[in-house]
Specification:
Ubiquitin-like (UB roll), seven-stranded mixed β-sheet, Gln_synth/guanido_kin_cat_dom, Gln_synth_cat_dom, 3 domains, alpha+beta, GSIII_N, 751 residues, Four Helix Bundle (Hemerythrin (Met), subunit A), nine-stranded mixed β-sheet, Creatine Kinase, Chain A, domain 2, Glutamine synthetase
């Protein structure tokens, strides 16, 4: 039966036609609509708000946003009325405060616009149904705060919590059932006592801390125009797509997001022919429909392509302000999940769904920009004399050097643990890559000498800060070359005018890593500003010599965090140890970095988290890590004892029956191939049973232990036992006749 289901699912995967969706047409109907004409049509933008609100009310709202002040009730009532009319005209029947609990995903509770109004008509009380949406309903709602991860800050009987509208992120509508829609209100989520229970509250706090610190430094440098600095973010989202019928036959994929068993096929990614190859038509149809939905939601998707592993793909947006970019990344993941379902596909965001081929990341490209759009990490043509750039650059390096452990904690999870350190993702050592040019700039400042091998500005063409490559082919144009090459092995690489945090996992929200980057960089900027003030004591402003002196001090202090080589190499592991850089290999060790005084203080002192919130985050991470692994272990136990073992026993019985039949005919069975296979099967089956029993016993031991012991046992023993079970089961898969094997194999899932 299991084999027949596999065959049917595999045949279905081949025969599924690509789903066709009509692209919208222009207003005249004479052509297909341009992407820009579709973009943001389901978003309640400032422009839409301006068109519906009285001018004084709109002006007051903009001032409140810029001043980061609470909304007054009359303004909230006016906005609530305007957005209700806008949303209901587009089919909305419900609204929801959309928030980001510490589950790695989003949450929503739908409320209807419908309400009842009681009036008296001729002395008789009459109830009438009306549609209404008040300012108080817009501003906040009340989900259950005890049912979400809270790290012990809320008891189960203390249920009250609040979602509060984040006015910096626009409201939008998404399709509901029966051609209706739902109004989404981006929100923060706090407890009854005001503790942050979500990802967004801390992100907004960290953005404010970074802005305050950066503006203060800019003032010292003579910039009196910049009022606000914000971090920018672009998230490269990697994922796998598999046929949903095959997916439904894999309990491990359904429950855990990754395969707990499975042998890599003879051909997978070793020819590197899938990377940037032609996108399969069924997948391209899914991508295109997803882009259409995202354009309507104002998500600026820019690229799509095949990734390295078979059936692995990527979508990436244009850079945006970090908090909005996080919202949009989560919208992208949700939309891709829904659209893939329509195409009878299943999207896998797990960092390592298939052992033996590349896993998936969410490369977070981070920078800082002024309110006038000036990128503070833009080196320009002459970075050696661009002191503002150099100050912000060394502040980032300082943050990374002092708080690399925090950044390592921000990307630690049971799923990402399978990916980090493999030939696809950086190891547990946090370092920064700058490239030859910037390295030479910093070295020359440290050593007080002129630049070596510097290309004069009059020889630089086409691209700011780059040089030119001559391809020796007359019909090809000159190619502008960037200041630096890319280092795909670095966890934190400078890539022209931004840093790429490559270690972030594909499944996780990018919020927490960006919180910690913003926070630590803000602290380093503040310290750097103080150092400048000391150098310039008694002066109206620091001189160039003062600035260079501070930059030189920071270059020397952070030199150990810079590495230009291969982060995957054993040589780097040894060199990092000599430099005193920690190599954090396990999640429990990474999580404890949150509790170290220096790391906790950088969060608490700037108001990003209270001490209770930091400890809560630690307990949530540990609890999730243990639960994830226990769920995996129980899933593997079920697959082994309910699937693999019965299949192997049946095959072994059929082999034994065949041998007995041949023996009855007078054959010497000792040298028959069936006998050799039966012996191998029996040996492996006994081994699998022993590993399976060990797994069951260890699960019981972990369940009975305290939190810290659970984390330790899960990391040091459970993963090893699960790997032993898998190793034996995979050996059995390779010698068991295909018709007996109960689960779709890698060659069916990946091709």
């Amino acid at each position: 039966m299991a084999h027949q289901a596999r065959v049917s699912a595999a045949l279905g995967a081949i025969s599924h036609p690509a789903r066709s969706v009509d692209w919208p047409t222009s207003s005249s109907g004479s052509r297909l609509a341009y992407s820009s004409e579709i973009f943001g049509q389901n978003v309640f933008t400032l422009k839409a708000l301006q068109q519906t609100l009285p001018k004084p009310v709109f002006t007051r709202f903009v001032q409140q946003i810029k001043g980061r002040q609470p909304l007054d009730r009359p303004t909230a009532d006016a906005i609530a009325h305007a957005v209700r009319v806008w949303a209901m005209d587009r089919g909305a029947t419900h609204f929801t405060h959309w928030f980001q609990p510490q589950t790695g995903t989003t949450a929503e509770k739908h409320d209807s616009f419908l309400t009842l109004k009681t009036s008296v008509n001729n002395g008789v009380e009459e109830v009438t149904a009306i549609d209404a949406f008040s300012g108080s309903q817009l501003l906040q709602s009340e989900p259950d705060a005890s049912s979400f991860p809270n790290g012990g800050m809320r008891s189960t009987f203390e249920a009250r919590g609040y979602t509060i509208w984040d006015t910096t992120s626009p409201m939008f509508i998404r399709p509901g059932p029966h051609k209706t829609a739902v109004l989404y209100i981006p929100s923060v989520f706090i407890s009854y006592n005001g503790e942050a229970l979500d990802e967004k509250t801390t992100l907004l706090r960290s953005s404010e801390a970074l802005s305050t610190a950066a503006v203060k430094l800019l003032r010292v440098l003579g910039d009196t125009d910049t009022k606000h600095v914000y971090s920018t973010l672009g998230t490269e989202q990697e994922y796998f797509l598999v046929d949903r019928s095959l997916y439904n036959l894999r309990p491990d994929l359904k429950i855990t997001g990754r395969t707990l068993l499975g042998v890599v096929p003879p051909k997978h990614q070793q020819l590197e022919d899938h990377y940037f190859g032609q996108v399969p038509s069924r997948v391209l149809a899914c991508m295109s429909e997803c882009e259409l939905e995202l354009y309507k939601l104002g998500v600026p998707i820019k690229t799509r392509h095949n990734e390295v592993a078979p059936n692995q793909f990527e979508m990436a947006p244009i850079f945006e302000e970090a908090a909005v970019a996080v919202d949009h990344n989560l919208v992208l993941m949700e939309t891709l999940h829904q659209v893939a379902h329509r195409h009878k596909l299943k999207v896998l965001f797990h960092e390592k769904p298939f052992k033996g081929v590349n896993g998936s990341g969410k490369h977070c490209n981070w920078s800082m920009s002024t309110d006038s759009g000036d990128n503070l990490l833009e080196p320009t043509a002459n970075p050696e004399s661009n002191y503002r750039f150099l100050l912000f650059l060394v502040a980032v390096l300082d943050a990374l050097y002092k708080h690399g452990g925090l950044l390592r904690a921000s990307i630690a999870s049971s799923s990402n643990e399978h990916r980090l350190g493999a030939n696809e993702a950086p190891p547990g050592i946090v370092s920064a890559f700058l490239g030859d040019h910037l390295t030479e700039v910093l070295d020359s400042i440290e050593e007080g000498r002129p630049l070596k091998n510097f290309v004069p500005p009059h020889l630089q063409t086409v691209k700011v800060g780059g040089t030119v490559l001559d391809l020796k082919v007359a019909t090809l144009p000159q190619i502008a070359r960037d200041l630096t090459d890319r280092n795909r092995t670095s966890p934190f690489a400078f890539t022209g005018n931004k840093f790429e945090f490559r270690a972030v996992g594909s499944k996780q929200s990018p919020s927490f890593p960006i919180v910690l980057i913003n926070t630590t960089v803000a602290a380093s900027i503040n310290a750097l500003t103080e150092a400048l003030a000391k150098k310039a004591a008694g002066k109206a402003a620091p001189s160039n010599e003062d600035v260079i002196a501070v930059i030189r001090d920071y270059v020397k202090a952070t030199k150990n965090i810079r590495f230009e080589g291969n982060n995957y190499s054993q040589e780097w592991v040894e060199e990092a140890a000599r430099r005193g850089l920690p190599n954090i290999k396990s999640c429990p060790v990474a999580f404890k970095k949150l509790l170290e005084p220096a790391h906790m203080n950088v969060l608490v002192s700037q108001g990003i988290m209270t001490e209770a919130e930091v400890k809560s985050r630690y307990h949530i991470l540990v609890e999730k890590y243990v639960k994830d692994l226990i769920i995996e272990a129980n899933t593997l136990k079920g697959m082994i004892f309910n699937g693999v073992v019965p299949a192997v026993f049946q095959y072994r019985k059929d082999l034994a029956d065949s041998l007995l039949s041949q023996k009855s005919l007078g054959y010497d069975i000792a040298g028959l191939p069936e006998k050799a296979t039966l012996d191998k099967l029996t040996k492996l089956a006994v081994e699998l049973q022993a590993h399976g029993d060990e797994l069951v016993e260890l699960i019981d031991t972990i369940n009975a232990a305290d939190e810290e012991t659970q984390a330790e046992l899960s990391s040091t023993k459970l993963l090893a036992v699960m790997e032993s079970v898998r190793h034996t089961a995979d050996a059995l898969e390779q010698i068991t006749a295909d018709k007996y094997w109960p689960f779709p194999k890698y060659n069916e899932l990946l091709f």
